[in-house]
Amino acid sequence: MIDNNKKVNIIRVIAVCFFSTLLSIAMNELGIGKENTLMVFIVGILMVSIVTRGYIYSAVAAVISVMLFNYLFTQPIHSLAISNTQDIVLMVFFLTASLISSTITSKLQYQTEVSKSNERTARLLYEITKGFINVTGNENIILRGINYIKEYVGYDCYVKLNNEPKIYCSEGVPDYEDIKKEHILLIPIKGVAKQRGDVQLVNVNSPLSNEQDMIVKTIVYQMAIVLDREFIYEERQKIKIDMESERLKSTLLRSISHDIRTPLTGIKGASELILDSYDSLDRETVKKLASDIYDESTWLMMTVQNILDMTRISEGKLNITKNYEAVDDIVNQTLSLVPQMASSGRLHISVPDEIVLLYVDGRLIVQVIVNLLDNAYKHAGENAEVNLRAYRQENLFIFEVSDDGKGINPSIINKLFEGFVTHQRNNIADGCLGVGLGLTICKEIVNAHNGTITAENMKNGGASFKVMLPVEIES
Amino acid sequence: MSNKILIVEDDNKIVNFMSMALKAKGYTVLTARNGNQGILCFCTEKPDIILLDLGLPDMDGVEIIKQIRDVSEIPIIIVSAREQDYDKIAALDAGANDYVTKPFSMGELLARIRVMERLIERKTDNIHESVYKFDYLTVDTEKHRVYVGDNEVHLTPIEFKLLLLLIANRGKVITHSQISKEVWGYGETGDSKSIRVFMASLRRKIENDRSSPRFIFTEIGVGYRFTDE
Questions:
Q1: 3-class secondary structure, B94
Q2: d(C-alpha A173, C-alpha A203), whole Å
Q3: Average pLDDT, chain B
Q4: How far apart are CA B80 and CA A232, in angstroms?
Q5: So what's the pLDDT on residue B66?
Q6: CA B78 → CA A166, A464, B82, distances in Å?
Q7: B218: which chain A residues are within 8 Å (Cβ-Cβ)?
Q8: Per-residue DSSP letter, A171
């Protein structure tokens, strides 16, 4: 089958030969000499070499022209025989001249074309390189590469990264499992340190042209560079997080050893005293010591529980089991855990009339509120009034614990939830123990629910803590 | 009547103080250090109440409950460490009556034991009441009527069913899956949203003060408990 391009060229050759023949016949009729008529054919051949691509067409045109000239204008006319020697010389030179000139023209054409194509490739490569600069995220990078290959080379392809099972491909392409595994061209994505994965071009029925090959390799190479960059970035983030959690852990340890040792000292001391001097102590003193042991161990128990929760959270393994919980249930459970506060008459509760369900880990949220209530009672003083308000504000559900105490020390208000604010412990009378651990845990728990926790001093001077949780909109 | 209590627990210190405290209250105390001993002791000594630690060295606590439940309705109170929350629900579903979480106070444990004693009394007396009275709440099971104080309140059929279930198991924790099985007729796949909503609306009808309920108590993440007093 002759392709279209060839057909067009052949038609052009025929047309040009036809017109130059017509013109030369006309000139001959007008009595113009045959040397000049020959010029018409030369012009025709030059035109052929301009309007066609390839040396062969102008060569063919030259031969045809010579034969036509021979047939029409040399003696004997209307035959291919030549009787005049001059004519032979004329035609040989004519043929040579036209072959040379057409060769030069087509060479020139070819070079122009090459340089044009080089320029296009260069621009394309530039586009590709530029296109990868601002892409982040493995998936985006790979999809962009796939699109480029489809756009500039014309093949569908599949990309697989070594460290993930997913096989990427552009939309509308059949699944990797469903395609025939023949005619596949596999190109590795080679990063600096190791191979990141590979690109598989499918339905590659004929070898790629040099240009296609170069473009594909450039795209894959760029993908490798950008994937490398992404990997290094992630690695750095991870190191940063690791360092952060390491720092947190050491702060935690310091804080723990303090928070545990203090009550332990009390327990050890009091029980030792009872054991050593049981006979000399009066009943009241023994009772007082036992009650101290009880208080200190209660505190110790809470600290240990908090530490356990904390380590569970910081290892990212906190078992959050979310379920729908009614706000009523959360408040009820909270109050049952703080019976002495609930019955003191100084805790005021307000809950919404409507039934609100929150999608949360109920026990953890209860723990947060208990922690906040506990803090309020420890820090707002003996006779403080504490409010627990639960209400909805647009798409947020808010548990607010506020008191009418002396508020939060402005110097620590910004650091309340970070690390462990324990420095107060020594300044506060017995029974008011540190709060740092508790609030850090509260924050972690609330964060794990996509919520926020805030602390502020109110206008009347008391402290107010708010836990804001997203409410799922009922569909 | 002095009830016999079997403590199945592997930690010596805890066994010591629990048995001391229980003996001081006049109970007869039996102890077992592992599951097999516990089952043996249950068979030979016929205790009235079992306190069962879930973290035993030789057997899974839930397995022990199942074995005991095959032959007896004896009240079982689970003593669990907090990390065993899931086991706790599994144990309740397997038929345990109640639980306390370590560390617990003796007062708390004694209160739970008293609830179990009342359960035993109810069982032995075998009274089938048709009208229940709890403080200001009156429930007439035959006429399907509920009164708060002197005012009749209207409950939907599901709310009434819920209330009866709670009353029948009063003093005991009923897990969410038990509720959905009993009230809706299907198991753990039950709709956890519905239970919360129905319970909240039931509370709104029978409790005078919702924020500190008198009758229905929440055990968050586990289930509900109806008052036993």
A1: helix
A2: 12
A3: 85
A4: 46
A5: 92
A6: 47, 38, 12
A7: 328-330, 332-333, 336
A8: T
Q: How is residue B96 written in tokens?
A: 């345990």
Query: Please, which residues have CB within 8 angstroms of residue B76's CB and are 6 or more apart in sequence?
Result: B49, B50, B52, B65, B68, B95, B96, B97
**CB atoms B200 and A328 under 8 Å:** yes
- What's the rounded Cα separation, in Å, for the pair A145 and A141? 6
Asked if residue B40 has pLDDT above 80, the reply is yes
Q: Residue B15 carries which side chain, given as an amino acid letter?
A: V
Q: What is the predicted pLDDT for the residue at A206?
A: 81
Q: What pLDDT score was predicted for residue A432? A: 38
**Which residues in chain A are closer than 8 Å to B212, comparing Cβ atoms?**
332, 335, 342, 349
Contact B221 A321 (CB under 8 A): yes
Chain B interface includes A296 (CB < 8 A): no
Q: Which residue has the tokens 């990997």?
A: A231
How far the first Cα of chain A sits from its last, in Å, is 64
Percent of chain A whose pLDDT exceeds 90 = 6
**What are the backbone angles phi and psi of residue A48, rounded to the nearest 5°?**
-60, -45
Contacts of residue B204 in chain A, CB cutoff 8 Å? Answer: 355
**Percent of chain B residues past pLDDT 70, beyond the cut:** 93
Among A342, A349, A366, whose Cβ lies nearest the Cβ of B220?
A366
Q: What is the pLDDT of residue A430?
A: 34
Residues contacting B44, CB < 8 A, separation 6+ = none
The answer, yes or no, to whether residue B149 has pLDDT greater than 70, is yes
Which parts of chain A sit beneath pLDDT 70?
1-2, 248, 251-252, 255-256, 309-319, 382, 418-437, 473-475
- Rounded Cα–Cα distance for residues A364 and A348 (Å): 22
Residue B8 pLDDT greater than 90, yes or no: yes
